[in-house]
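2024-03-11 09:14:02 DEBUG pipeline.ingest accepted 1 chain
2024-03-11 09:14:02 DEBUG pipeline.ingest length=418
2024-03-11 09:14:03 DEBUG pipeline.predict start
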Amino acid sequence: RTSCGGARMQLFCKIVFLVFYLSCSDAYSNKEDNFQSRAGKFLNFFQIVTFKNQPCATQDGSEESAGVCYSPWECSERGGQERGNCASGFGRCCVIKNMDEKAVCDEPICYFQNENFPSENSPSGDTKSYTVKVTDKNVCQVRIDFENFEVSAQDLTGDCSEQFLSIEGVDNTFCNTNTGQHVYLGIDSVPSNTDVDFTAIRGSNYKYSIKVTQINCNTNDETMNILQAPTGCLQYFTEPSGTMQSFNYDGVNAYSTRQDYAICIARSNKNCGIKYTNPPVDGSKARSVGAAFQTGCSSGSSSAGSQDSGCGEDCLKASGGISGTNTNSDWLTIAGGQLADADLTDASSYKAFFCGRGLGEDTNSTIDGVNGNGIVDLSSGPFIVRFHADSVKPEEVGGEITDDIGFVIDYAVQTGKC
């Protein structure tokens, strides 16, 4: 005896009934029906209930922003949760979450989360070993989004020792608040496994929700095409304007040493350039790339202004700034970068390297922390900002630091004629 209970069995029973109905109609009809016509109706049934398993946006205001479009029974089979409809209502936007200590993500989109998410967990020597498994030969990149990431902060000089996340292939350890950040991983061969490990030894309560997207680079799906980053970019911003900031930034503690990565911004044929500016400081949060106090950034014969901004060769000097003795340095570089308020036809407006608390030519601004009028890049080719941090930690004085605190930069892509 067979029951038609369950979504999969119900679909099977519908198909059997349809075949039986068509057979009976053919046997008892006095008309010569066209068999191909009825077969076409039969095939149309399958065209309605089959669809591609593509990314979809959740629709119920859940903590997760996206899922994969599956049938209800496929979602259940994968241990997922339905978060709205897709495929004209025939599919369900399925969110697949992994909370186990050893979890594997082999779906187009999935999540790694702490056990109590969206609530917090308390640290007790926890170690989570996650794996991103790629088996689809069309996948060329993996994007990891920190949709929610609130763990204990690094110490004053940048070490993440209480709670931290590490991603295989990324030269940075993640701690503190990184909500809204993301990184890209290149996939050179398939199958491929990438380890993502989280450790919580002690410290404050924590929570995290990390979205993993396997990017198909051989598809007509618009979402996947938009997400695909240029080769070599650790971060890729697809919106025409937004904000980029250093990892683990809190305006008090230092960023990690030994970093060197590229931040890329999407460019279309209509874009003629991009402008980078220093937004107002958020409360008492400080900012600095390398030494906070510099010799001043200027072009031509203009005044050097304050010592908030450094540019050009000054940024390649000692990490200690104007009084430093170290041989290494931290900087941001924009290959075609020019001081925004300078004469852009003058070669002295090109600086390429930028450091300090400000960004661009110093202006002695009355707005605290906004020294520098920004940088423009009107060159052809991709928009790229590269960040480099040396192996030297900042000097701690009286329980505080001023160097190596991090950057926050607004960007705006320019269209038309620049």
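2024-03-11 09:14:41 DEBUG pipeline.report The two ends are 75 Å apart (CA to CA).
2024-03-11 09:14:41 DEBUG pipeline.predict end
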